[in-house]
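Appendix B, Record 12. Input sequence as logged:
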Amino acid sequence: MADLSVPVVLAPMAGITNRSFRRLCREAGAGLYVSEMVTSRALVERNAETVDMVTFDADEQPRSVQLYGVDPKVMALAVRIIIDEDRADHIDMNFGCPVPKVTRKGGGSALPWKRDLFRSIVREAVKAADGRVPVTVKMRKGIDDDHLTYLEAGRAAAEEGATWVALHGRTAQEMYSGKADWEAIARLKEHLAPLGTPVLGNGDIWTAQDALRMIATTGADGVVVGRGCLGRPWLFGQLAAAFTGDPIPADPDLAAVLVLLRRHAELLCGDYGDFKGIRDIRKHMAWYLKGFSVKQQVRQALGNVESLEQLDELLAQIDPEQQFNIEVGAGPRGRTSGGKRPSLPDGWLNSPLLDDTSLLMLKDAELAVSGG
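Logged structural output:
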């Protein structure tokens, strides 16, 4: 964390943390802004969409890529490509994705259960980086409360040279439900203290005050922010102020939010073309407008907007003279699902060691398309 002026990291989120959204966050504050999840095999195979995802704006510094993979050798190749081609300044590895299509094949938050495979992936990635860029790990507590992995996996990552370990205080089973277990973050921090490896906390950071509270109660060295910034890229300016001891800026009024929403749409269209860009902004509408009074028919139309021109017409129908509703707007947002039994390969939990059967299952775990 010594290289970050503010100990704040934007969590990689599929379909969200693309170049356009990262630019908005970067302009608002300070920290490290991580790309969408990039599949190591897709990068090695030079998938065009994946290569584009590890192409950053010229003024984006530091450049951060999150890699997903289940094969130590392929992960090492991907790390070398990123470094040899000067594509990023930081590499994070995803061991926390709870999405069923990932875990049912043994990837994401299911993988640390296979402790030898987990250690091998971290070891090979760090070795491939050879000290040229920091390599970090993001993970969850485990598969469920009966199969927790975070303490052992955290130590393995630290012993193999990970620069830091970030922990989301939920299991794969919990996904995004309930409250994040900040006590687990505190336990991991204490567990890794003898090794000197920093620990970052993730989960339920909706405001700058939440971030300060997490640091104070867990001893974490920094925070990772995911759903809290959806429709609120200005949160990073508030976080920067909180960590530097400056007055925390107030949330913007609706007039300013609408300007930001329009700019987000324009950036997406510039990056991905009008057709894809305008469809991509649709998912952000409810997040930007959370807590504000907007006519139902306008909300519905915004969810199906077809062009920048139509977007302008719809935004003009909204009364901009509204203050930010802190009670509603600064509360939880994004996905809240969870509680279902995680999807895992047959027999995955029989042993924490990798066997021939598990190895065969993992052949299908390398996603062909990046982004989650």
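DSSP finds 16 helices and eight strands in the chain.
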